[in-house]
Amino acid sequence: MIRIGVGEKIGRYSVIGFLGRGGFSLVYLAEDPLSGQRVALKMGNLGGGGRYVTRFLEPTHRRTPEGISPDEAPAEAIFLDGPSPRIDLIDVREIDSAILAEGERLQKIRATNFVRLREVHHHEGRPVLVLDYVQGKTLREKIRACEGIRVNWFLTIVRVLETLRTRADLPYHGDLKPENVLVTPNGKVVLLDPGYRGGQRDFVATTPAYNPLVLRSSKADVMGIGIMLYEILTGALPFDEVPWIGAGRVPAGEVERLSLSYFLSYPPARDLNPNVPPKLERIVYRCLVEEGYELEGLRDDLVAFLRAAK
Fold first, then answer.
1. 19 part of a folded domain
2. What predicted TM-score, i.e. pTM, was given to this entire model?
């Protein structure tokens, strides 16, 4: 891991503090002395990618490079090169490749609701992404603080993803979760950290709790939104054993289909919270279970729900 201290220089940027961690990265707050603007510096973390790495870190009430806070649920490297998905570590070369690949994806994205890449630096031979620093709270922080959550934030997410897919800027996000949705003080939604996919070894970086089937399409985003809504409505996640044992494969036989049907069985939201609106519970169900339910259908259903709620 690159050790970074307050006051240290990364290119022309002066490090101010630590912002948070990703699956195999650390993000620092820094300042550009030329403009006085603050930026976020994202760089690889050698201990990244595996299921047990974050379990070895000390739980803390605040974000530090040495620990993990309740506001952080890092993605994991899921390999799909065998009969079932496996979570494993990735080496420094793969980490740096993933950081550079994220930079390339962000360069293609033209959307005010997505964090902007300013430039790519190299520090001690390792790539560093220089990103806009966006003030606000993640959806995870808002959930933990019991702050109000707006359904129209999810409609914004869907519309942004639809636009990016249509323009071929970003076919899908791939790692939608509360940690990757930022809400600014004026209510603007900003998306962070599109999931990594590809490389010499067949792996993706995603968070299994929000992409349990390890999908590599916009359906992953639809399912992620459904799981976030379920969590907000019930205080729980719908699926415990993630990723699904058959993730990454098309269920071709009766055993695979039966396994998937059992996996997709979950407690309905209204069983855990009787106050959940039936129409919103139906949207969650379609996100999680209906194979052909995509961004377009989700957008239409969210619009109809919001109109009926006025």
1. yes
2. 0.92
pLDDT of residue 70: 66
Strand partners, 165: none
Residues of the domain holding 186: 9-309
Neighbours of 310 (CB within 10 A): 4
Task: Report the C-alpha gap between 135 and 38 in whole angstroms.
Answer: 10
Q: Is residue 2 part of a domain?
A: no
- The total number of structural domains in the chain stands at 1
Query: In this structure, are residues 196 and 207 in contact, taking their beta carbons and an 8 Å threshold?
Result: no
pLDDT at 61 over 70: no
55: DSSP letter: G
* Cα–Cα distance, 302 to 228 (Å, whole number): 14
Contacts of 266 (CB under 8 A, 6+ apart): 230, 238, 239, 288
> 218: domain CATH number?
1.10.510.10
Answer yes or no: is 4 within a domain: no
> Which comes out higher in pLDDT, residue 55 or 109?
109
Token duo for residue 227? 């799981």
DSSP string, 105-143: HHHH---TTBPPEEEEEEETTEEEEEEE---SEEHHHHH
**Position 3 in a domain:** no
pLDDT of residue 46 exceeding 70, the answer is no
What does the pLDDT look like over 148-164, one tens digit per residue? 899 999 999 999 999 99
- Tokens 């959806």 correspond to 139
What is the residue whose two structure tokens read 């605040």?
62
